[in-house]
Design a protein that fits this description.
about 140 residues; alpha+beta; 4 helices
Length: about 140
């Protein structure tokens, strides 16, 4: 179905996202490497981390990711505290990044980024790419 020509119902998007998030679970590195590595080859898995500042914690994030035997198709990070213009400094091999604008008057606790593995074909949908002070 071609979503570009359909109107997006915000309530449907929120409900769908809520259902998706309620099925998310956290796992330890050894659990993922031992029990889920084969599953990750055929299913979507997302790595999420509140980085609490890319400038000071990005290297630690990359080191953490190296502990996994399989690459995550999507890496999502929150509280980057940087603007999209600075995102090019923080790259992960085999991934394309997309940094969202941070809230101008905030120095901490703002900014998000996605890293999409280069094996995926991703297209940004601006109508779904929104950031507010409440999120």
């Amino acid at each position: 179905e071609d979503l570009e020509n359909d109107e997006i119902d915000e309530h449907d998007v929120i409900f769908s996202f809520s259902q998706l998030m309620s099925s998310c679970t956290a796992h330890r590195v050894h659990e993922i490497n031992n029990s889920y590595a084969d599953v990750m080859k055929d299913h979507m898995a997302i790595f999420f981390q509140n980085i609490d500042g890319a400038k000071s914690n990005f290297d630690s994030l990359v080191s953490s990711l190296e502990r996994f035997t399989q690459k995550f198709p999507i890496i999502a990070i929150a509280e980057t505290n940087i603007c999209p213009e600075q995102g090019g400094t923080y790259q992960i091999t085999d991934y394309t990044s997309k940094y969202h604008e941070k809230i101008a008057e905030k120095c901490k606790g703002t900014g998000v980024a996605l890293y999409i593995h280069n094996s995926l074909n991703a297209i940004e949908k601006p109508e779904l790419s929104q950031c507010t002070e409440n999120l």
